[in-house]
Amino acid sequence: MRTEMGGKKSKSVADDEPKKSSCPDESLPKAERIRKLMTTHFGYSVLSLARLGIRDPPEELWELKELQKLNLSLNSLRAVPSALGSLQNLVVLNLWGNQLSYLPPEIGRLRHLKVLFAYRNRLTEIPDELSFCTKLEVLSLANNQLSGLPQSLSSLDGLKKLNLSHNLITHIPSCIYAMKSLVFLQLACNRLENIADQIQALTDLKILIVEGNRIHSLPKMLCCLTKLELLNVDFNDIQNVPAEMHRLRRLEKLACHPLDKGLHIMHNPLLKPIKEVLDGGLQALYGYLKAT
Question: What pTM did the predictor assign?
């Protein structure tokens, strides 16, 4: 042992001093030490291991069978082990801001999972087994390297919010059209060139964001989505709009701010007379479309 001046203490003094422990619960098994970090929030058992520079989660973590919300965000994870499947009571799993290139197929064992955040990773594909998580309501896979989704995810018919922005998607994955409960669909900054007519199946959709793509035209079937409150098609290649667009009565105004409800249609090569009519606002556009 060293003194404050860097010298050595005598053996007798050193022996008399109590030894300092880096952890007051060092005598406990590791699983119990991790369990002591758990909290209860709104009736859920919660554990946050965010921002700790973790590369490999401690093996004892997977022994916490009672855990319902787990936050492993903003670490250095390259993989999540198959043992994840043992946490079958998980309702919320937060993995965003890591270096994950894949999700383990055992994620399909999390049958109570309602929220999965896996954005800002390096995912190139999603396992078919995620389709077994049929209670999912919120799924964010934004800022990855995905070119599509497996057709098996059609089973996620209770999903309400899906974020796939900032990926490499060229066509809206067909499984999405089976997700009849969607109210929020975010596909900004991909490589979409069109929106298929099947979009009409998403009758509960309130927010559709497809800005920053390569979309050339809007299908008239889009106008069947009469619950739309926000439609963002900014920064595309749209030249015209369907005459039926006046049916979207809940789009109450032309919107500029990203969070505003309404129609976002700036920065498109709109042709005459649509561009000029829009100078009078959305109602002017609707009046023009009704008359044509």
Answer: 0.89
